[in-house]
Specification:
Blueprint lengths: L3 H17 L17 E3 L11 H14 L7 H5 L2 H14 L3 E5 L2 H12 L5 E5 L4 H10 L3 E4 L4 H10 L6 E6 L11 H10 L3 E5 L26 E5 L9 E5 L1 H10 L1 H4 L6 H16 L2 H19 L11 E7 L1 H13 L2 E6 L9 E6 L6 H19 L1
Parallel strand pairs: 1-10, 3-4, 3-5, 5-6, 6-7
Antiparallel strand pairs: 2-8, 7-8, 9-11, 10-11
Helix pairs in contact: 2-11, 4-11, 5-6, 7-8, 13-14
Bound molecules: pyridoxal-5'-phosphate.
Pyridoxal-5'-phosphate binds next to helix 5.
């Protein structure tokens, strides 16, 4: 006889065992206040997260307006500072309006759930972020994946889709585990040919790409080409939260129907203030972006000289695909011993057999940091040959 409680513990034990096999178990490194390592794993591409001006803005707003927003946006949590931030984000991305949400994960759930249902069709790049996949599931929308960055495959799928059905094409702007960039113009043209809407999640492009740091969509592709643009604020902008940008009709619809927007407490005002400060710095200190792209070029030149298997990426995300989990863990541990933290990315985050080090570069890395990284990578190679 099994009690039902037994069934639960058996179920959890089985899942844990499966994950532990093949070096798949994940651990949360607890970081002490004084970082004893150089961080090549985070997404703070412009070095804004530690800028005292963001902390100052956050503290001031918290003192004036409270540590929390106290309610959801539709009840009594929507403050002027949120409104101001939404206007700035709309300006930055060249859109009529923007809507602030608490996280990128929720922004993607919110858009897909509010727009889609069983009577719509969703087409996603195979390597899209988990939150986009989950959003289509939440909406219960029939959803197909096209081959990564393959417009012909998308074209084929769209041609076969029913004409009388609202259709949405969804892609990451910069792919978070590969660092490559979507062909936004090509996606827009393909979507237009089939009367589909296009949604781009530019979480890793915002602040990094584009003439104004406005991302791989931004002002270069207006809302007629890309009707739905999602950006996140916890990466290059160094704070937290996310937004959806588009026209009046879209944003009004989300305010009415996006459950991840409606049923959650508004973002703390201090966080919105920190983001406003980050947007000021993005505009006033373009040299941060220039320095970041120099770092990327430096790293790629030297890593290629070492013969490391770099991916085709011009963004701060520079994966080194090593194949199996054990090898990735060996390299990551060796780098950790040298005081360097990189992402060790395994299945199911990436396909099986494509486990990788995910190295991310930042404008905050100096020459010494980059030298230390390259030296430690060369050591990994030597250890393997020995
Ligand atoms: C990080 C990320 C998200 C989630 O954003 P959060 O604000 O961290 O929840 C969504 N999409 C992509 C592509 C991301 O890389």
């Amino acid at each position: 006889m099994h009690s039902r409680t037994d069934l639960w513990s058996k179920r959890l034990a089985r899942a844990a065992e499966q994950r532990r096999s093949h070096d798949g178990w994940r651990q949360r490194p607890t970081l002490s206040d004084v970082a004893p390592f150089i961080d090549f794993a985070g997404n703070d591409y412009l070095g804004l997260a530690d800028d005292p001006r963001l902390a100052q803005a956050q503290a001031q707003a918290a003192r004036r307006l409270g540590a929390g927003a106290k309610a959801s946006h539709l009840v009594s949590g929507h403050l002027e500072i949120h409104e101001r931030l939404e206007r700035r984000l709309a300006e930055l991305t060249g859109r009529p309006r923007a809507l602030l949400l608490s996280t990128g994960y929720m922004a993607n759930l919110g858009v897909l759930q509010a727009l889609c249902d069983r009577h719509t069709r969703v087409f996603q790049d195979r390597l899209n972020h988990a939150s986009l996949i989950d959003g289509a599931r939440l909406a219960e929308a029939p959803s197909r994946r096209f081959h990564h960055r393959d417009l012909d495959d998308l074209e084929r799928l769209l041609a076969r889709a029913p004409d009388d059905t609202p259709t949405l094409v969804v892609s990451d702007g910069v792919f978070s585990m590969d660092g490559d960039v979507a062909d936004v113009g090509g996606l827009a043209a393909t979507a237009r040919r089939h009367d589909a809407w296009l949604m781009i999640d530019d979480a890793h492009g915002l602040g990094v790409l584009g003439e104004h740091g406005d991302g791989c969509v931004g002002r270069a592709h207006d809302h007629h080409q890309v009707p739905i643009l999602v950006g996140t604020l916890g990466k290059a902008l160094g704070s937290a939260g996310a937004f959806v940008a588009g026209d009046e009709m879209l944003i009004d619809h989300l305010i009415q129907f996006a459950r991840p927007y409606v049923y959650t407490t508004a973002q703390p005002p201090g966080v919105a203030a920190a983001t406003l400060a980050a947007l000021d710095l993005l505009e006033r200190e373009p040299e941060r972006r220039a320095r970041l792209h120099e770092r990327i070029a430096d790293f790629r030149r030297e890593a290629l000289r070492l013969g490391l298997p770099l991916a085709d990426s011009r963004t701060p995300i520079q994966p080194i695909v090593l194949g199996d989990n054990a090898r990735v863990m060996r390299w990551a541990q060796s780098l950790a011993r040298a005081g360097l933290r990189v992402g060790a990315i395994r299945a199911p985050t990436v396909p099986k057999g494509k486990a990788r080090l995910r190295i991310t570069l930042s404008a905050a890395h100096d020459d010494d940091a980059l030298d230390a990284l390259l030296e430690a990578l060369a050591d990994c190679q030597r250890e393997e040959r020995a």
